[in-house]
Amino acid sequence: MQRNTFQRQVVLSAVQTLCHATADEIHRFVAASHPGISKATVYRNLGLLSENGQISHIEATSGADYFDCTTSPHYHLQCTECGKIFDVPFLYLGELNHIPVDPGFTVTGHTVLFKGVCALCNNNKERKIK
Amino acid sequence: MQRNTFQRQVVLSAVQTLCHATADEIHRFVAASHPGISKATVYRNLGLLSENGQISHIEATSGADYFDCTTSPHYHLQCTECGKIFDVPFLYLGELNHIPVDPGFTVTGHTVLFKGVCALCNNNKERKIK
DNA sequence: ATTTATGCAAATCATTTGCACATAG
DNA sequence: CTATGTGCAAATGATTTGCATAAAT
Fold first, then answer.
1. Which chain B residue lies closest to A124 (C-alpha atoms)?
2. How far is the CA of B45 from the C1' of C4 (A)?
């Protein structure tokens, strides 16, 4: 049976405050008020909380993974300049899980990740040119 | 100007032979006949060849990335048991790059990766149960 | 009391990088 | 010749793990 530790509560509440954050960002946030909490504990709790469906795990294709306070299915846009994650609302292609592949294969899910440049980074780029 | 080194030719030909392979698999394949070629060189050439559009880079969400001998746009299915990559033909959602997001954002591309269990691994699982 | 969780440090895995030497153009 | 590429080993970054101790139930 899973226990309701102080550390787990603090990690969950950090994810809910930060909305989209990496394990390291969550650890830094948590450690600010509770310096004793280790990064390993943050990782272990992020894993458990995602398995429980209390948060969701955003698997990036480069750099660190992110954790999301929202658990409803939706896709993300990641800025290739700063790494930040943004929600892509109003789009979820559930039917993609039923694509016809060789019988024998079992499709269990799919990931969609958009790449782009966020407003802030676009702005910084323009300034550099000038 | 880019040079046409022996090592680069060997790496390209390995990717074309293996079709879907990780840097490590490509290095092992290459090293079998040319033991002098280092893994760093394999990585550097895989990077250059993808930039040139001679091969493509499959960014995985866990474990090692793969390199693909094909360069036409298509998605992949990765087996969560063995990590192998399979093509998902006849499906490319180019229109996804035009999803409406906040103005200021620039969407430059998207990744779709299916997760599932391949025929071979499904088979192995069944045997374990019995 | 017993099992689950924690903190720490070390280990792992994929990939990148610095640097001295080699070689393609 | 000289810029680009190579091999080696060390560095990096994200994440995981072993182990002794702590604390939830």
1. B104
2. 47
Q: Which residues, listed in sequence order, are joined to residue A76 by a DSSP beta bridge? A: A87, A113
Q: Distance (Å) from CA B45 to C1' C22?
A: 17
Short-list B42, B113, B44, B125, CA closest to B81: B125
Per-residue pLDDT of chain B (130 residues; tens, 9 = 90+): 899 999 999 999 999 999 999 999 999 999 999 999 999 999 999 999 999 999 999 999 999 999 999 999 999 999 999 999 999 988 999 999 998 888 889 999 999 999 999 999 988 877 766 5
Å between CA of B42 and C1' of C15 = 11
* Count of C-beta atoms within a 10 Å radius of residue B66: 24
| Terminal-to-terminal C-alpha distance of chain B | 60
> How many A×B Cβ pairs under 8 Å?
99
Question: Could you give the domains of chain B?
Answer: 1-71 (1.10.10.10), 72-130 (3.30.1490.190)
Q: Cβ B116–A96 below 8 Å, yes or no?
A: no
Q: Cβ contacts (< 8 Å) between B118 and chain A: which residues?
A: 104-105
CA torsion, points B92, B97, B100, B105, in degrees to nearest 10?
A: 160
pTM of the model: 0.93
Chain B within 8 Å of A122 (Cβ-Cβ)? yes
Token pair of A85 as six digits: 């994650």
